[in-house]
Amino acid sequence: MHVKICNAGDYQRVARSILPTPLYEYLASGTDDEQTLSENESAFKAWYLRPRVMRPVGSISTVTTLFGQRLSMPVFVSPAGVHALCDEVHGECAAARACGKVGTIFGLSQHATRSIEQVAEATQGNTNLWYQSYILKDREMTLRLARRAAKAGYRGIFLTVDSVRFGFREADARNNFSSLPEPHRLVNYDDEVSQAQHPKKAWVAPEASVDKSKIYSGQEEAWDQNTEQLFEQNPSWEDVRWLKREVCRDLPLIVKGIMTAEDAIEAKKAGADGVMVSNHGGRGLDSALPTIDVLPEIVAAVGDQFPVLLDSGIRRGTDVLKALALGATAVGIGKPLFFALSVGGEDAVLNLLQMFQRETEAAMAICGCKSVSDVTRQLVTRHPSGSGRVGKYERSKL
Questions:
Q1: Angle between the 116-123 and 139-151 helix axes, to the nearest 10 degrees?
Q2: 313 annotated as ligand-binding
Q3: pLDDT tens for residues 352-387?
Q4: Which positions are annotated as binding glyoxylate (predicted)?
Q5: What is the pLDDT of residues 11-63, one digit of tens each?
Q6: 81 labeled part of a ligand binding site
């Protein structure tokens, strides 16, 4: 089947046609009834752009900065694990190199299938790498992993705080998707965890064929659940202060997984340098609000000088523009990355990122914005029939 790839959705359609159903549904699904998964995308459609005309837009720049780091566009790759399910040869290195070519951030998941050091070596200093951390029960392991990233030249830390428990994905249960195929491993744990202290299956896949059609045995407890056992079950905001003090004095620390103004304020008080509005792409708590709907209250609560990132639901350049207009500094993509990686590896990821840049640039031009700084709250309005809320912290309404 030949499909002309024109947008992120095309990559998903092609991925669905070529991947084994269990793998596709693992990548595409959400938890429970998938309400949040669905509404992450549809909520953007309740926001409308208000284009301004007769403005000089002969030269458009999508360049932005984050903590003094130059990004070619306000779109980056959010940290998400197990890239080797989509690109068995290169894993996370493929997408990381693509980010370097386009000039944006690549977020490496703690649950990657290529190590902190392998990705740094593969990109040879050409990619702006950030590392994603969880607070583990083993606090020293948490610090060692983050310090490895700092030593390897990573330029920031995403601290994910919304995954004390993983949501239940019914598609995985129905498909018996329960194990990561050998030789793929959650390699960042390999040098850190003593096998005498923890069950091997908590971070190493049980034996299985690399053939993607044969990896869904259903004989092991779900590897998500095993990995979850490593996480601190009683976290507090003091953990943010601790990580900032111990590792991130010279690195920006973004707290990822913020969905309320109240928690954004707490993160700021705890010493975070910014927050990331995220509901884990609908893979955490079902019935959580779409990220675009809570963004305005969070921006209003922390102030427009405090960086607020967003992911979950970004599929078009117009989505990027709407998020920027509502106060986001930049936005991350996750699922579109996996679908592109499955279809064509590094080249497809590069094409995906370039499409986002082209779409964002075109939307800016049509709306009369020469630069990212021209994108303001006056650019968007909410359709009267739009669902969801924006919260008591929202600033002036149109």
A1: 10
A2: yes
A3: 999 999 999 999 999 999 999 999 999 999 987 654
A4: 26, 132, 134, 169, 280, 283
A5: 999 999 999 999 999 999 999 999 999 999 999 999 999 999 999 999 999 99
A6: yes
C-alpha count within 13 angstroms, C-beta hemisphere, residue 288: 27
Kindly report the backbone phi and psi dihedral angles of residue 99, in degrees, each rounded to the nearest multiple of 5, phi listed first: -60, -40
- Report the alpha-carbon distance of residue 380 to residue 49 in Å, rounded: 5
Which of left, alpha, beta for 336 (phi over 0: left; psi -120 to 50: alpha)? alpha
- Given its phi and psi angles, is residue 147 left (phi above 0), alpha (psi -120 to 50 degrees) or beta? alpha
38 is in an annotated binding site: no
Terminal C-alpha separation, the chain: 47
Active site residue 280: yes
Selected catalytic residue, list 83, 90, 184, 280 = 280
| Coil vs helix vs strand at 333 | strand
- Helix extents (H) in the chain: 8-18, 21-28, 35-42, 92-102, 116-123, 139-151, 170-175, 223-228, 238-246, 261-269, 291-302, 317-325, 335-366
Nearest-angstrom CA–CA distance, 49 and 357: 18
56 Cα distance to chain centroid: 34
Task: Answer yes or no: are the C-beta atoms of 102 and 386 closer than 8 Å.
Answer: no
User: Would you list the DSSP string of 355-387?
Assistant: HHHHHHHHHHHHTT-SSGGG--GGGEEE-TT--
Q: Which uninterrupted H or E stretch holds 158?
A: strand 157-160
Nearest to 320 by CA among 351, 284, 361, 348: 361
Dihedral sign, Cα of residue 357, residue 373, residue 292, residue 31: positive
Question: Would you say 280 is a known binding-site residue?
Answer: yes
- Both tokens of 299, joined, read 């921006």
pTM: 0.90
The answer for 134, left when phi > 0, alpha when psi is -120 to 50, beta otherwise, is beta
